[in-house]
Amino acid sequence: MAHRIGVIGGDGIGPEIVAQAVKVMRAAGVDFEEVTFDLGADRYALDGHVLDDADLERIRACDAILKGPLGPPIGDTVVPPGTVERGIILRLRFDLDQYINLRPFHGNGLDFVVIRENTEGSYAGEGGFLRKGTPHEIATQGSVNTRMGVERCVRYAFELAMTRPRRHLTLVHKTNVLTFAGDLWQRTFNEVKAEYPEVETAYNHIDAACIYMVEDAQRYDVIVTDNLFGDILTDLAGAVSGGVGFAGTGNLNPDRTAPSMFEPVHGSAHDSLGTDRVNASSQILSAAMLLEFLGEAEAGARIRKALDDVQSSNPTPNTIGDLVAERV
Ligand code: IPM
Ligand code: MN
């Protein structure tokens, strides 16, 4: 049966790289129906629309979502900060319970995966203002960590580590300073670890992990960390493994109670729009991850292989989509 794939083109280079990824999926012979959604900063600037309940209902009816990068250009004054981020991206991740943010990194001889908790932490939206606009103004932004949320994420990471040859898992946090959240993460990690004696484990503080990422990323196999540390560490991971333009993301609902969503790690890169630097690799890789999640392992593998072959010939970035579609 044809898959129903929700497609969000997004902003900046988004629509262009999403079109390339859709073309590649078609060329790979995958049978799917496209359900398109006009969402993002451009749409907001046009008529003020952000993701609403009706959009969410249509999205829930899809098997998976292929999402381009969303966001206004740097320096934009029309779209208030958070409109697209909280109003669309995080709402999708939270409402669809996509609690695993899976980011694999290959390139420069590296091969590791970051599992970022995707529904809690300082992204949860806890906090607020008191006495806003006065000299005594207070702003708080709490980090929300539930035993259930941490445990399901940590467990996913152990299961993933079990499928990889090295069977190595590193917890990254800041337990020496964040003594409440860090304690919950560390205790949960230790308890779940007891169920996986074959997995070798390590712990790094986030600041040290940044050094290792730059100087010795070979040490990593699977990393598990919270939402904010994971956001920052995966930009760095992208940079050391060949560029963030080559990194894809799965926002996974492993229980399959709602669709999962696949998107690049990078942003909308308005400054690259219309140049030969536009590179659809991250979006094509995200499409391969989507297909694999839907059980199309063979098509996913063919797309990865075609992408690898094309990349190794060092093409002009904006020709990659066409070259992969020809080869797949
Ligand atoms: C990412 C992005 C998002 C995040 C933003 C755009 C909300 O940076 O997917 O890493 O912070 O998670
Ligand atoms: Mn990010």
Summarize the structure.
With 328 residues, the chain is an alpha/beta fold. It has eleven helices and twelve strands.
Structure, explained:
This protein has about 325 residues and is α/β, with parallel strands linked by helices. About 40% of the residues lie in helices and about 20% in strands. The protein has eleven helices and twelve strands. The protein has helices at about 15-25, 40-45, 55-60, 85-95, 145-160, 180-195, 205-215, 225-240, 280-295, 295-310, 320-325; strands spanning about 5-10, 30-35, 65, 100-105, 110-115, 125-130, 140, 170-175, 200-205, 220-225, 250, 260-265. Helix 1 (about 15-25) crosses helix 9 (about 280-295), helix 5 packs across helix 6 and helix 9 (about 280-295) runs antiparallel to helix 10. The longest helix is centred in the middle third of the chain and has 16 residues, at about 145-160. The protein is globular. The relative contact order is 0.18. The model has no long low-confidence stretch (mean pLDDT about 95). The structure holds 3-isopropylmalic acid and manganese (II) ion. 3-isopropylmalic acid binds near residues 71, 85, 89, 231 and 265. Manganese (II) ion binds next to helix 8.
